[in-house]
Structure formats: structure tokens, C-alpha cells
Design goal:
- The chain is mainly α and 94 residues long.
- The protein has a domain at 10-74.
- Helices cover 47% and strands 0% of the residues.
- It has helices spanning 19-30, 43-74.
Amino acid sequence: MADSLDPGCSALVVIWENTWAARLAAAVRGSGGELVAQYRIPHEVVASALDALREDLEDLEDELDEEDLADDETTEGAGPGRVGGVGPGPRQRT
């Protein structure tokens, strides 16, 4: 490979083995199971799914914030953490 590179250029070759997958397959076979398929999910598919999940979570957080605002408006004067003076306070999020 080095002979095919132009002067001043470099190359990187990365080879790895997912050793956890070999251990998982051995455990499956050891318990009488059969590994029938193995797939690699392309990075783009994983990234797209994570982006969609992040958007869904942001939408959910927005909805919860709107509900909290509505709860605050209906509980004015009810005392801290109590709706109409009865029951538990507003939900706490971390």
C-alpha cells in the first residue's frame, strides 16, 4: 500500500472485530439457540433514527411545558405545590 501513495500523502487502515458479538453468539449457541442472521445497521440509518427521537422528545417537552403553564394559571393562589389546595403538587422533571 505504501508504494501506491504519492509523496507527502498518508493512509489509514482500520480493522476491528466486535468481540462482544462473538461472545453473544457463543452464549446463544451455548444455551441451545441458533444465530440465524447478523446485520450491520448503516450509520446514516442510526443517525436519522436518533434525530427523529430527539425531535419527538423536544415536542414532548414542549407539550409538558404548555401543560405546566396551564396548571400554573389554574392554581394561582392555591398555595405552593397544591391544586386548589388539594392533592399533590405539579410534577417535577429533572
